[in-house]
Design a protein that fits this description.
Distance between the termini: 37 Å
Number of domains: 2
Order of helices and strands: HEHEHEEHEHEEHH
CATH topology of the largest domain: Rossmann fold
CATH superfamily of the largest domain: Vaccinia Virus protein VP39
Strand content: 15-25%
Radius of gyration: 19 Å
Length: 246
């Protein structure tokens, strides 16, 4: 089955040399299957907590990608909570992909995985459904570094996609509202960024008005965003409180 725009973008960002790729909350396994087809890592792991889905997926993998084939990539199905990934039992460099869940749950999963595996080289490829600011605050607190990020729209929904690393890199800090997502080289990218910025600001302004939530620091941060066609950072001197995620 052909991947949609969101999963295609996520798949295209898994380009480094990994020993293990973990497709978490994988549902029917479309993303992991695409990674398996192009042999993106030595081993592709399919992870979901729904037992029936995992049984169906394992049957399909055995049918279309039998383990005794000549493929250079192996696969394994795990019916477990994504917070319990057995990374320590599998050596090498890991890519953990989490997509299709909210930012709050994603924040909990990333923190749990990292705290249980603090000495392992892990990249996270993340695409939250919402609460992107909350997720970014957690990544900042964990001192992760940014490798790249993208902003796309699919079926009238906006998605931020972040590739981050547990390995700290100089000059690769994660911005609380994003940096590269406000850059591009086409009018289409500029329109997507402008529409996303307006929608995000409107959301937080409604939240502040209707529930008296303390989100002014988030509104101020997004209000400082501008789009540029030049490949240089455009967000500077942002003021935010890492202790007040929303």
């Amino acid at each position: 089955m052909k991947l949609g725009k969101r999963l295609t973008q996520i798949e295209s960002m898994a380009i480094e040399k990994y020993d293990h790729i973990w497709d978490c909350c994988c549902d029917h396994g479309l993303l992991g299957a695409a990674l398996l087809l192009r042999q993106a890592a030595a081993q592709i792991h399919f992870v979901d907590i729904v037992a029936e889905l995992m049984r169906e997926l394992e049957n399909k993998l055995n049918q279309f990608h039998p383990k005794n084939s000549d493929s250079r990539s192996e696969w394994q199905v795990h019916c477990i909570d994504a917070a319990e990934l057995p990374l320590q039992k599998n050596g090498g460099k890991h890519l953990v992909i989490i997509a299709g869940v909210g930012g709050d749950l994603m924040t909990e999963l990333v923190k749990a995985i990292y705290q249980k595996n603090p000495a392992i080289d892990i990249d996270f490829l993340l695409c939250p459904v919402h609460h992107q600011f909350t997720l970014r605050q957690q990544l900042i607190q964990l001192n992760f570094s940014l490798k790249t990020e993208n902003l796309i729209i699919e079926n009238q929904r906006f998605y931020e996609i972040l590739l981050v690393s547990t390995i700290q890199e100089p000059h690769a800090a994660i911005n609380p509202i994003g940096n590269l997502i406000w850059q591009g080289n086409t009018p289409e990218q500029e329109k997507i960024a402008a529409d996303y910025l307006k929608k995000t600001l409107d959301h937080y302004k409604r939240m502040q008005l209707n529930s008296n939530a303390d989100v002014q620091h988030i509104i101020d941060a997004y209000s400082a965003a501008t789009f540029t066609l030049a490949p240089t950072p455009t967000i500077t001197s942002l003021k935010y409180s890492a202790s007040r995620p929303t």
